[in-house]
Structure formats: structure tokens, C-alpha cells
Write a structure and sequence with these properties.
2 domains; 366 residues; globular
Length: 366
């Protein structure tokens, strides 16, 4: 089976430095926050091009803590894409605000500044833009729009570590950004983890406070915080992974280009829009007719094609009762198919996938 992702292979390639990094933490006796987390925060901020990075427990927590630090809560609205991983919406709900969905552009899967502009209302306090599948949104336009309205642009960069455009890297393109280090992400830990990046020192300070029980000094609590701290063992692993992020993103890019070249013109398959450094191909997602049929046939042919995501957030148990009408999100949920892609897939694997898709779709009606 050509797996969609091989996180074990990522460890095996870096076994020696990862083992050494973990041993360093084990022998230091420092198991919560401390120098390893601080070193990672500094290195990650440097990569993103921000002055601050704050390590937290997960991507969901990173989003939630940013919104809390922005003092967004009950009565406020936050614009979110209708087509995203459900965590984007859940973070807004977690602070008591209302997620207001914006339908994406089908070609890029991302929201446009025009669509966002049309959705801004008197209660809108922030926009969470998601760089879905690893492709940056049009951040310059979104940032200008948010600045004009005096609201915050928060990047959900959980799928876009390292992606860059003319203004910089993911994490530095809004007022603040949230990252996840879930193992399958482009920068993945060996467990859960996340980070907030920003160049606003006050916002960073607030997130630092909130992630640690609202405490700066032991047993002094300034705010009702939470316990959401990046684990030093994960920080040590992430410091190793950070050194290969660009290289591994290049491998993803090469495979994506191969797919794009070899699958062009296959009937009933719409390829992702062209991209460059702005896309780090967390996932390679095509849109197709009779999607479920193709997925099953591919599995029969030894290709593990997945669906990101089969159920749009507004159809999930968390939001179904709102009964929202979001036809683009519904359409995408029924058409998208993810082909295997990762830094540990080689060209031969990609060619097996390409061969299977071409064979299964040969002669299919357009
Ligand atoms: C993975 C992901 C998250 C959540 O990250 P966790 O670390 O799993 O909490 C949020 N948003 C998007 C777009 C993601 O892909």
C-alpha cells in the first residue's frame, strides 16, 4: 500500500539527532518549559520572521489562546473559512465568540479578500484565514482589509510551516498566527504541540501568561489561564525537524509538480491551481467526479487516498443544529480527494499513484 504519509520514516531518517536531542532533555531533568522550549521558540520565530514564538500544547490551543489574548469573546464574531479542519471553528466557539463562515474559492480552496470583505459586519473582531493544504491565502490583501477595519488577521498556519510569499513566511503575515505540530504536519513532533507566532510583544506576553495558568511567578496568578505548554521533549525533536523543514518541503513540491504534470488532462479530475514557494503541499488535493468510487478503486489498487475533509464543519455534530447553508463547502466535501504525498514518498511511489489514477479514469466521461 502506498500510504498517504509515513511518520515513522521521518523518525528513521533523523534517528541519531532525535535520539540525542531526547537524551539531552532526559538528562537535563527539566521536563516543563525551560531552556529547550525557549531555544525552540527562538529558532521558530527566526524561521517565521517574527520577533516572538510561544510554544503551546496543540494547534487548537494556539488558535484559542490567540483569540483570548486578543480579548475576543461573547458577543463577538470571527470570520472563518467554511471549508477547513473543524479546529478553526472550535477555537472561536471555545472563547464564546461566533464563527461566521466565508465560502472559499474552489480553485485555491482558500478564502479571498473580496469574499471576506463582504462578510465583515459590526461585530466582526477578527478574521482567521487558513492556509489550507499548505497554500498561502492572499495575505497582503487580507492584512490591508483587516487594518482598514481595525480588526485582527489571525493565520491558521497549521498546514503551512515554511510557506512564503513576497511579504514573508507563514506566521508573519497577519497580526498573529497559530501552528500545530501534530505528527502529520509539515513540521511534526512525536506527539501533540503547537505555537503562536507574532511580532506584537504584548500579545505574545499575554499568550505566555495564559498558557501557564496565568502565572508569571510561581503561585501568583494574574489571569484565569490554562495549562497548555509545549513539552520540552517535543521542543527538542522540533529543533531537529526545523533544520530539514525547507528541504522536506522541497521534496513535497517536487512530488506535487510530478502529479500536476502527469495528471493534467485526466478526465474528471481537477488539479490544484499552480503554485510556487507559497505552497508547501501539506496535502495534494484534487477535485473529482464520483469521488468515493475513485477512492475505493484506488484503495483496491494499493493507493491510500484520503479525504480532507469528508464533513464540512457546519455539518459536524458541533454545528449541524445551526443548519447553515454553505453550498461551496458542501460541494468541496463531496469532491475532494487527497493523493499520497510526503517527504518520504519517492518518484516511483508517485508514479504508481499516477498510473492508477490514469488507468482508473481512462475514458471516463468529463
Ligand atoms: C491540524 C490543524 C489544526 C489543529 O491542530 P492540533 O494540533 O491538532 O490541535 C487547526 N487547524 C488546521 C487547519 C489544522 O490542519
Amino acid at each position: 500500500m502506498i500510504a498517504s504519509l509515513d511518520v515513522g520514516a521521518a523518525y528513521r531518517e533523523l534517528r541519531e539527532p532525535i535520539d540525542a536531542a531526547m537524551r539531552r532533555v532526559l538528562e537535563s531533568g527539566w521536563f516543563v518549559l525551560g531552556p529547550e522550549v525557549e531555544a525552540f521558540e527562538e529558532e521558530f520565530a527566526c524561521l517565521c520572521g517574527t520577533t516572538e514564538a510561544v510554544g503551546v500544547g496543540s494547534g487548537l490551543d494556539a488558535l484559542t489562546l490567540v483569540l483570548r489574548a486578543l480579548e475576543i469573546g461573547r458577543g463577538d464574531e470571527v470570520l472563518v473559512p467554511s471549508n477547513t479542519f473543524v479546529a478553526t471553528w472550535l477555537a472561536v466557539s471555545a472563547v464564546g465568540a461566533r464563527p461566521v463562515p466565508v465560502e472559499p474559492d474552489v480553485a485555491t480552496h482558500n478564502v479571498t479578500a473580496d469574499a471576506v470583505a463582504g462578510a465583515i459586519g459590526p461585530r466582526t473582531r477578527a478574521v482567521v484565514c487558513v492556509h489550507l493544504y499548505g497554500r498561502l491565502c492572499e495575505t497582503r490583501e487580507l492584512r490591508a482589509l483587516c487594518d482598514e477595519h481595525g480588526i485582527a488577521l489571525v493565520e491558521d498556519a497549521a498546514q503551512a510551516h515554511g510557506a512564503r510569499n513576497e511579504d514573508g513566511r507563514a506566521g508573519a503575515l497577519g497580526h498573529a498566527a497559530a501552528f500545530s505540530f501534530y505528527p502529520a504536519k509539515n513540521l511534526g513532533a512525536l506527539g501533540d504541540g503547537g505555537a503562536v507566532t507574532t511580532s506584537d510583544p504584548l500579545l505574545a506576553d499575554r499568550v505566555r501568561l495564559l498558557r501557564n495558568y496565568g502565572s508569571r511567578r510561581r503561585y501568583e496568578f494574574e489571569a484565569a489561564g490554562v495549562n497548555s505548554r509545549l513539552d520540552p521533549l517535543q521542543a527538542a525533536v522540533l529543533r531537529v525537524k526545523l533544520t530539514v523543514l525547507d528541504e522536506w518541503n522541497e521534496r513535497r513540491r517536487a512530488l506535487a509538480e510530478r502529479y500536476r504534470a502527469q495528471l493534467a488532462g485526466v478526465p474528471g479530475i481537477a488539479l490544484p491551481a499552480p503554485s510556487g514557494a507559497d505552497h508547501v503541499h501539506h496535502l495534494f488535493v484534487v477535485r473529482c467526479e464520483r469521488r468515493d468510487e475513485l477512492r475505493d478503486e484506488l484503495r483496491g489498487a494499493g493507493v491510500d487516498a484520503q479525504i480532507h475533509y469528508p464533513i464540512a464543519p457546519h455539518r459536524s455534530g458541533a454545528y449541524a443544529e445551526l443548519d447553515l447553508d454553505l453550498p461551496v463547502a458542501d460541494r468541496l466535501a463531496s469532491e475532494v480527494l487527497t493523493l499520497p504525498l510526503g517527504p518520504h514518498l519517492d518518484e516511483e511511489d508517485a508514479d504508481v499513484v499516477i498510473g492508477a489514477v490514469r488507468r482508473l479514469r481512462a475514458g471516463a466521461a468529463v
